[in-house]
């Protein structure tokens, strides 16, 4: 049995530069890995059956873990691919924290070791991009300034901070939100200095706040502790604290109608 941890990420900002010819968008973002993990285990089978189990039942129908297995199996023409896979999901689905992409990345990394493939990190990142725009980042496994579709990664030094996250009760689906974004022809690129001077934001935030009043209420409540940001295409809002105690004190005051957790940004 092989066990792996699959981390979440926060977008410290998210900008869209333009729409690409392939239908995707060119983005700019900073991705910060955090210590909120899903857990994956893999066990080889002698037959060629794929058995997938998860604590989130509906993922049995469709998930990025078995899709990742299939794409890797086909790419490397694996003959004996029988596998029992168990996914323990702690990262909320549709929360803008990249859980599905992280699971895909973890699966590619795990299976390339289990199957003893010669795949380099670069090879896996190219396969990962077919599964989702955030997958290369998770394969790379380091905090990054992200551009292009999500595949252009520049290492970035981030302070280790504590974050208080508040989750939406409903999953928010990325595809729906990208359809609503109106891209200005001359959308400005942002710089690292803009980020340091607090001049960056998440382009999806205003749409999400209008469509999901409970997230807007959560933002309103959380803003008493600092600047509130939204991760990905929404579902999770957060603010940062310099120490665990301050985050915990805020967490204890959080209204019971909200779900949330305290996480640490990984260095």
Output the structural class.
alpha+beta
Q: Distance between the terminal alpha carbons, to the nearest Å?
A: 29 Å
Q: Tell me, rounded to a whole number, the average pLDDT.
A: 93
Question: What does the main sheet amount to?
Answer: 6 strands, mixed
Report the order of strands and helices: EEEHEHHHEEEHHHHEEHE
Q: Roughly what fraction of the amino acids lie in strands? A: 25-35%
Shape: globular
Query: What's the count of strands?
Result: 10
Radius of gyration: 19 Å
Question: How much helix, percentage-wise, in residues?
Answer: 25-40%
How many helices? The count is: 9
The poorly predicted ranges are none
Give a brief description.
The protein has helices spanning 64-75, 99-114, 121-131, 135-140, 174-180, 192-196, 205-211, 213-222, 244-253; strands at 2-19, 25-44, 50-54, 83-88, 144-148, 152-155, 162-167, 229-231, 236-241, 259-264. The protein has 267 residues and is of the alpha+beta class.
Describe it for me?
With 267 residues, the chain is α+β, with helices and mostly antiparallel strands. It is built from nine helices and ten strands. Strands 1, 2, 3, 4, 5 and 6 form a six-stranded mixed sheet that branches. A hairpin with a 3-residue loop joins β5 (144-148) and β6. The model has no long low-confidence stretch (mean pLDDT 93).
List keywords for this structure.
single chain, 267 residues, alpha+beta, six-stranded mixed beta sheet, four-stranded antiparallel beta sheet, 30% strand
Secondary structure layout:
Elements: E1 2-19, E2 25-44, E3 50-54, H1 64-75, E4 83-88, H2 99-114, H3 121-131, H4 135-140, E5 144-148, E6 152-155, E7 162-167, H5 174-180, H6 192-196, H7 205-211, H8 213-222, E8 229-231, E9 236-241, H9 244-253, E10 259-264
Helix pairs in contact: 1-2, 2-3, 7-8
